[in-house]
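Hi R.,

Here's the chain you asked about this morning:
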Amino acid sequence: MTRGEDSYMSSGERKYWYNTTSGEVEYGYISPAVDRVGPFDTAEAAANAMQTLRERAEAWAVEERIDDDWHKTTDVDGK
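And here is the predicted structure, written out as tokens:
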């Protein structure tokens, strides 16, 4: 059972969060927002939050490099 499983979010939705301080999966708003990543639909997805964040950060970095290269080759900025 995850921490706070009986609590509800203010909107009435039930979601899982990953606590970056404790490394635990929580159900609902248990920890301060600064310590939470989410929301996630399942406890398993929340447990994998750090891997998901790494994958998204890598994908965004690739997209930024592509955009930067495109701007350089198309002279979009008028330089």
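One quick note: The mean pLDDT is 83.

Cheers,
M.
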